[in-house]
Amino acid sequence: MLHLLVADGNERSGRATHESVCGKTSAETYAGVLQHLAPDAVCHLAAPADADAVLPRALTACDALVLTGSTLHVQDGGPAVTRQCDLVRAALAAGLPVFGSCWGVQVAATIAGGRAARNPRGPEYGLARAISRTPAGADHPLLAGRPPAWDAPAIHDDAVIDPPPGSTVLAGNDRLDVQAIEIRVGDGVFWGTQYHPELDLDEVAAMLRLSAAGVVEAGLCPDEAALHAYADALRDLHRDPEGRPDLAWRLGVTAEVLVPERRRREIGNFLDRLVRVRRRAA
C-alpha cells in the first residue's frame, strides 16, 4: 500500500473559491486521480498554507508528496508561501519523491535556488500548446509515452523563469522554457510540470471562468462573453468527448488532452517509475 501526502497549495479562501466552482478542492482532485492510477494508494490530504495546519501523517511514514496548484504567488512571500516551501524542503531532505504541477513546480524551483515570477512571454490559459522535450528530456521517465509534441491543460501567469542550479529542464514550448523539470535536493527527487495533467476539461472551464478578467486582459478573448462561450465548449466536450468531434476540432483538442490516461501520463509515470521504484529499493 502506498501512502501519499497530497498538499493543497491554496490558503483557506482559495480552497473555498475553488470548491465553489469545481465542486472539490485541488487536493481532492489530485487524490481522485492518484487513487484511480494507483488503487492501492491511500491519500492523506493536508493544507500547509494554513497557520494551524497539522500533517495527517508524518513525512517519514509517506511514500511521496504531491503539491497542487494555487492562486498564491511565490514572489509575494508571506507565511502561507513560506510554510509550503518548508514542507517541500523537508520532504526532499527526507528523501521523498515529490510531484507538483504549476504552483508545485514554482515552489520546488524556488527552494532549490531558482526563480519563479510572472512569465514575461505572457500567461497560458486553457491549454499549453506544442510542448516538446528538450534533449535532456528525450528519454526521461517522467515523459515516457508522450508523443514528439503535445498539448496539456494549463492556467498560469507565473512560471519558473530561472531553473535552479543542477536541475534538468525536460520540456518547454514557445511560451515557456520550463514546462517540465527534474530537481534533485540531497536524496529527494522532484518531478513536475508547469501544466496541469490532473485537470479534466470541466475543471479547466470552471477555472477559466474565475480568470475571465485576466484572459481578456491578456488579449486571448475579446470580452468575458467570449471567454464564457469558450468555457462552455470545453465543459460540453468533457461531458461527451466521443460524441462531440465538432467541439474537439473547433477547439483544437487532441487525444493527449481528451483521453484521461494520456492526459495524466506524467502522474502515472511518477507513481510507477519513481515512487514504486524507490519503495521497492527501500
UniProtKB/TrEMBL annotation:
It comes from Methylobacterium nonmethylotrophicum. GO terms for molecular function: transferase activity. This is Type 1 glutamine amidotransferase. GO terms for cellular component: cytosol. PROSITE patterns: GATASE_TYPE_1 (PS51273). It comes from the Bacteria. Pfam families: GATase (PF00117). Keywords: Glutamine amidotransferase, Transferase. The keyword Transferase applies. Residues 59-203 form the Glutamine amidotransferase domain. The keyword Transferase applies.
